[in-house]
Design goal:
Layout: H1 2-15, H2 21-32, H3 40-62, H4 69-92, H5 96-120, H6 127-145, H7 148-169, H8 180-195, H9 201-218, H10 222-240, H11 245-251, H12 256-266, H13 274-283
Length: 284
């Protein structure tokens, strides 16, 4: 779709003398040489990598007791390094799709290995800490290899952390763990810009909206609703108004920052009669 529009625009510009035919052909050639940002083959390859990773973990877990301890440990470490080094080799040869699949396999194996080794040596720790370490490893791999598929996996691991937290602590503030989602969202946005994986930014924005919704549920009141609505409005204006210094940065992310800021601005309200609570708020 975009290529057709670009080709029509270039033809108009050539006819008007704004661009010569040689430059127009070079622009189209450069665009055609870029790797496709989306393809069915790439999606199927990534899905196959996830399924293979799950199969490996299930196989190891089902035969865990029959494998000697030292063989378990060395086998898991060798498997992780094989996947990562194989991905690096394929990236160097320009085989980005297969390389991304190997990176995903390496990251999946790393997470499973943490759980299995923790059980093997009776290491203390909880699942939230494990998810943070897993997220950090995925983020480091995404930055080192500049893999957009790895950025997406990093985003889903952040969602996994939120899911485990809500499973055990949905109605309470548990230590410093509730601060992890906004920090993870900031890391994902940074990876999106560094790696150039624009679609993954929605994972960060949706997680932030969910985190604010959870925060509002903990302190559900008119004060909290007004505070969140005001914060959403301020962010919306900051990323939308041309005079704002943040607008130039947000413009590269399209309409997503403004949309999610507006969503935060308008989706919270206090329980009960809002007008009665509003008058009470100002009387206080």
């Amino acid at each position: 779709m975009y290529r057709g529009r670009l080709e029509r625009d270039l033809k108009i510009w050539v006819d008007k003398g704004l661009v010569d035919a040689t430059a127009a052909s070079a622009i189209l050639g450069e665009y055609d040489s870029r790797p496709a940002s989306f393809s069915a083959g790439r999606v199927l390859t990534v899905m196959a990598a996830l399924l293979v990773g799950a199969a490996i973990l299930l196989f190891v877990a089902s035969n865990w007791e029959e494998i000697p301890r030292i063989v378990r440990l060395l086998g898991l470490v060798a498997l992780i390094w094989t996947f990562y080094l194989g991905g690096a080799h394929l990236f160097a040869r320009g085989r980005a799709t297969i390389a991304s699949a190997l990176l995903i396999l390496g990251t999946m194996t790393f997470g499973g290995a943490m759980s299995l080794v923790g059980q093997m040596y009776n290491m203390s720790g909880d699942v939230l800490t494990m998810m943070i370490v897993w997220f950090a490893a995925a983020g480091i791999a995404a930055a080192l290899f500049r893999s957009s598929a790895q950025v997406v996996l990093t985003g889903f691991l952040a969602w996994g952390f939120c899911g485990f937290y809500l499973w055990d602590h949905s109605d309470q503030w548990y230590g410093v763990m509730p601060w992890a989602p906004p920090i993870m969202a900031a890391i994902i946005v940074a990876l999106v810009r560094y790696v150039d994986a624009p679609r993954a930014r929605h994972l960060a924005y949706l997680m932030l909206v969910g985190w604010l919704t959870w925060l509002f549920a903990q302190y559900e009141s008119l004060h909290a609703a007004i505070l969140l609505a005001a914060a959403g409005l301020i962010v919306f204006l900051a990323v939308s108004l041309p005079v704002s210094p943040l607008a130039r940065i947000a413009r590269s992310a399209g309409a997503a920052p403004a949309f999610y800021a507006f969503l935060v601005c308008g989706c919270y309200r206090a329980p009960g009669d809002p007008w009665r609570d509003f008058r009470r708020f100002f009387r206080e």
